Amino acid sequence: MAIIREVRGFTPRIGRDCFLADNAVVVGDVIMGDECSIWFSTVLRGDVNSIRIGDRVNIQDGSVLHTLYQKSTIEIGNDVSIGHNVVIHGAKIHDYALIGMGAIVMDDAEVGEGALVAAGAVVLSRTKIGAHEMWAGAPAKFIKMVEPEKAKEMNIKIAHNYLMYSRWYTDPQEEQPTEDNGHK
Q: Over the stretch 32-89, which tens digit does the pLDDT of each residue have?
């Protein structure tokens, strides 16, 4: 069972139909929307400041979300995908954004609606990534614009896929993968 713990008088609030993996950790001032999935070995540490998560957000295995005491907070919009082993430290992530595996997004950075942060990117403090922009590298730099409808479609698909995956753990009747849908 996931660790959900009160800290400094703040108890995490989890929306409806959320999946928290057995070894996920959610502590303190965390408010999570509906149909989110928090995967294995993921830590949401709302001990020093607030973490706010929208609906249908998936935070994949090994990711860590934390903030600076009395300085930075985390805000994540709806239909956002946070890849495996991501660190988000006091940043704002808008709707339909995708943060690639192993990326780091630092304090007071902002990732715009439908933006893509490439795997392994390091988004420095106070960086502003505009809507539908792709950034990559360490430190992350603008690469190109992403077609808004394609980015939204892709990110909604990923968010819905992770919702489906999470239901495999809670509902044995949920659709199982077949070779037809690209899973083996």
A: 999 999 999 999 999 999 999 999 999 999 999 999 999 999 999 999 999 999 999 9
pLDDT in tens, 121-130: 999 999 999 9
Q: What single-letter amino acid sits at 73?
A: T
- The two three-digit tokens of residue 155, written as one number: 């990110």
Euclidean distance between CA atoms 42 and 178, whole angstroms = 27
122 touches 136 (CB < 8 A): no
* Inter-residue long-range contacts of 163-167, CB under 8 Å, 24+ positions, other chains counted: 163/35, 163/37, 163/56, 163/58, 165/37, 166/19, 166/37, 166/58, 167/19
H or E element, residue 162: helix 148-170
C-alpha of 69 from chain center: 21
Closest CA to 38 of 100, 86, 95, 92: 86
Cα torsion at 146, 110, 74, 88 (round to 10°)?
A: 70
Cα–Cα–Cα angle for 30, 53, 162, nearest 5°?
120
